[in-house]
Amino acid sequence: MSEQTGPGGFAQRIGAQVEDADDGGARIAFEVREEHLNPAGTLHGGVLATLVDTAMGQAVRTTTGEGEVPATSQLTVTYLRPGSPGPLVVTGRVRTRGKHLTVCEADVEQDGEAVAHAVATFALLHR
Predict the structure, then answer these.
(1) CA trace torsion 62, 4, 72, 121 (10° rounding)
(2) Residue 1 banded pLDDT, cuts 50, 70, 90
(3) Which domains are seen in the chain, by residue range?
């Protein structure tokens, strides 16, 4: 992908932008704003969960064929440090692609530091 595009759905509504998605990988840019913060003044964990899920889903979509729809069946997010207002980048990648299940990983970085790491399993629905 040469241009930034929205990922669609909820992630797009909160401002996520797909910078690249190709060959089992995806990169999402996100600007953390005041409305994304929790009462402690740091990036809400639910926003991070949405971003890693979206990045991994975009990565899986680069490997699917006609009629295959990825659906998150398991998601584990490890929060490494608090996120703060400003830009961050989420990188998702397919680790193992099976006929019915795909395993992915994602990393979130802000200011050159790791903010979160995630692992997810996606079921491939056939429609």
Answers:
(1) 60
(2) very low
(3) 9-126 (3.10.129.10)
